[in-house]
Amino acid sequence: MNGPMPLSVRSCAHTSAITARSNIRLPGKSSTPIVRMAEKYRIAPLLPLPSTRPAGETRLMTTALLLIDVQQGFDDAAFWGPRNNPDAEANIQALLEAWQARRDPVVLVHHDSIKPDSPLRPGQPGNDFKPELADARPDLVFGKKVNSAFLGDVDLHAWFTKKNITSFVLAGIQTNFCCETTARMGGNLGYDVTFALDATFTFDLQAPDGTTVTADELTKTTATNLQGGSFATVKNTKQILS
What does the domain layout of the chain look like in residue ranges? Predict the structure, then answer.
């Protein structure tokens, strides 16, 4: 790929350009649930790459910015209900501007819902990115139909591996669904994941007993799960940019 890809190019173009799935296999028998999961989805946990630098030379690591589902369809309050964190979009934009100023990799993912009543269905305005991404110059854009960005239209794990990217900062929508799922899977695959909590938001959700769990409560639970389970390091935007 020669240079950053224009934002107007959508997932079908990227899918045709990057369609090869990873055929990496771990040697020997699968001995852990993580390895068995990786084999099921034809991906492999991240393995250390052999160094090509002289002994004693510091290896510079590139951290990607992974923005999940920052789409206009999430503005439909009648469909989603009450949300939290009104500063999320501004924080997402701040991260994007910082990454682009450093010319570090930026990946945009959009959710192409297959549900007939979803505001995120392809072919309607809700599927488009929010205005905060208008000036984005992403290195990769693709769609997905499930929660994890690692199971989308492009093999993100293979792309990261090819680019020698072993860490990423994650932000986007929704905190406790696609963002948390992608962070968990990234941690399982061996990536150093930083979860930009204040650059995400979510919505109130009904619990099985009929009570309402607020968006703030769900966000706190996500942060606790990710850091407590060693899937990711949870930080705010100011900490990440300092």
Answer: 32-45+61-241
φ/ψ (deg, to 5) at 109: -125, 135
Residues 6+ apart with CB under 8 A from 232: 170, 183, 184, 186, 187, 193, 194, 195, 226
Q: Which residue has the tokens 């052999």?
A: 50
From the candidate CATH numbers 1.10.390.10, 3.40.50.850, 1.10.10.10, 3.90.1640.10, the one assigned to the domain spanning 32-45+61-241: 3.40.50.850
Mean pLDDT estimate for the chain: 83
- Copy the structure tokens of residue 206: 């009904």
Strand partners, 110: 143
pLDDT at 197: 98
State how far the alpha carbon of 213 is from the alpha carbons of 85, 101, 171, 204, in Å. 15, 38, 22, 6
Assess whether pLDDT exceeds 80 at residue 12. Answer: no
Helix (H) or strand (E) holding 109: strand 106-111
Phi, psi (deg, nearest 5) at residue 144 = -150, 160
Confidence category of residue 39, pLDDT binned at 50, 70, 90:
low
Alpha carbons 199 and 174: distance in angstroms, whole number: 10
Strand locations in 16-78 (E): 63-68
